User: What shape does this take?
Amino acid sequence: MPFAVRKLRLRYTVPKVLMRGNHTVAEAAVRAGCRYYFGYPITPQNETPEYMSERLSKAEGGVFIQAESEIAAINMVIGASMAGGRVMTSSSSPGISLKQEGISFLSALELPAVIVNMSRGGPGLGNIAPAQSDYFQATRGGGHGDYRTIVLAPGSGQELADLTFQAFDLADKYRTPVIILGDGMLGQIMEPVEFRPEVPLRKLPPKDWTLTGAKGRPSRFIRSLLLDPVEEEELNWKLMRKYVKIAKEETRWETFESDDARMMVVAFGTAARIAKGAVKRVREQGLKVGLLRPISLWPFPTKAIRDFSKKVKHFFVFEMNMGQMVEDVRLALEGKAEVHFYGRPGGIILPPLELSRVIASQYYQKRLG
Amino acid sequence: MAAGFIEIDSELCKDCKLCVSVCPHRLIDSSEQMNQKGYYAVCFTEKDVKKEERKCTGCSLCAICCPEIAIEVYRA
Amino acid sequence: MKKVFSRPKSLKRTAFHYCPGCGHSILHRLIAEIIDEMNLQERMIGVPPAGCAVLAYDYFDIDMGEAAHGRAAAVATGLKRVLPDRIVFTYQGDGDIAAIGTAETIHAASRGENVTTIFVNNAVYGMTGGQMAPTTILGQSTTTSPGGRRERRDGYPLRLSEMLAISDGSAYIERTAVNNPANIVKTKKAITKAFHYQLEQKGFSLVEVLSPCPTNWKMSPVDSWKWIDEVLSLHFPLGVIKDIGDKKDAH
Assistant: This one.
């Protein structure tokens, strides 16, 4: 049994445990009531299926399957979700590409599910180093058709635990897939984590739409084939209304040193962690720089960024990719402020000191101090 | 019986000991010399066992089994 | 005295990154020796897997083209259809060919594609750290079959070579091993024969090679050779599984 799980079982108060990100995701999921996990090996998230194979074989009703491929896994997720279970799959960039048809289906069928992506360098086979180049894939639906999924971007081990736990509630509440967009570093990092207590299965919200056998009720079917364009259009509007509601209620972000900022850095996930260190450094030198960290990438904190543009006219977007979230920042600002982008793709992890120099250089170039 | 000898590139050796296990004359053994990678490379011990008259015949079983192609074989 | 054994020409002078005692190293050398002996270096195109041998092009001095995990049979099909007079082979692990790549492999065989597949079976997912594979045997402990593979929880192992033999498109399928000198020599003979069948356009050929993975089996290389003899080959018996012999082709 993984050492961290043994420790948890021994104490009844909730202590902090030192845990690897990939294990944290799995443990948080099980505590949220997830009993069904279907996955496949791919670095850098292998520890998640490994942990689940152990944890679910000991949890009552727990099912772990290492599927034959990521495509098979996402389709097992569809089946398990249709049957009413809280279900999760995890993978990394190339495997998430394989899952896109399934995620489009989950959205069209309005099925809850949690999908974890520990992004790696790409495109193609890429490498196993952390990257953020799946932002477009995650936030623009990713597969075919007009749909969106909720996308949460944790920035620490604790956030991995919290957001994974919440993801299941969000998925059930809105009947929609939720993507946890992490990266290889987050998956491997070992940090102290406090978990919520495990939710008993009988306390989970009931579902009145699942496929369980039509006993004592009319039969029902779950499908997304809508040959009549009028019906298909109506589904798209229905999804749109749902997404508007989600955008109103589930947008999340965080700011740091933003009150008197003349330049706002915008970054998510591991990049935000690096950016926070960089902002601290430049603040020590007297530069008035702040940080806005989107935590929900979809819905994106568009309004929060636009509000900042009343006082701040310079935004510095830092991503571990060739420029993806920066487009959403530009869209949010509608030309009201200047946007500078600095990106490092391929799995490069920039030290905060280096980033602070780039930020300072931009700050002085724009004559802000 | 043909006569033979082998040359082992100790920098390629990873001390898997497969050659040691297949040599019919027991003429290969791990050395006490660590190579650059940190392995105790194997060495050809025919010189050390001259008294016992165990001699290499160039059968090449060691080279066939060596994953690293670290062994070259000569035969008369 | 003359030199009777040395490094084949068709291998680049790169030291192998594989673990001590890994079967890949021996297999790479065998294939390179065959390429030398059959003088195929300029006609050969290989497709490596996603797995420990993903960097096979750092070793084989021939043209090689990457395939996504499991899709080598499809990539090979594309290559061979454009260049029918080249020798096209895939080199795949058990996860690559029998998990994610099952459909592509079965259909390449079914179409009777004139390509050769080298199926390296070490009963585990090596590169990603020792997860259960389709060919992991019952009772075998891996990181995703804790306590050992159990039928009801983890399913049964898959014998892909036997399944492919049913297909009318497959011309030659043999299972060998690289766990002792005699078997290594037999493996070389089998792969040579498979390449000949491709040259003669007889259809799909495959050699499954039981290969040691000392690191993930948690054994010494010498013990992992024994484990193949005493355990693994009982579940995956060595020998010819299909051979259309003198028939012109399997179609």
User: Anything to note?
Assistant: DSSP finds 14 helices and 14 strands in chain A. Chain A touches chain C through 18 residues (CB under 8 Å).
